[in-house]
Amino acid sequence: MAPSVRLIPGKEKRVKSRHPWIYRSDIAEADASCRPGDVVSIYSHRGRFLAKALYNPDSFKKMMTYIIITQVVAMPCS
Which residues lie closer than 8 Å to 39 by C-beta, 6 or more apart? Predict the structure, then answer.
């Protein structure tokens, strides 16, 4: 199972709008097992899966910790 990250309430809005980064200040809790380059699961504060991201603690922007690589997209019912 991939390490997971839970966001602070309200911070999922940026992910849902397809912003490509998650900032350290957005994170409520993260698995201590996260290692550089790990693919992690991103969850809302309520535990809803939002995205998969790459963990990068040495980002060129010290605030940016995760780069989103996939997201959940709602499909309309036909």
Answer: 2, 52, 53, 54, 55, 69
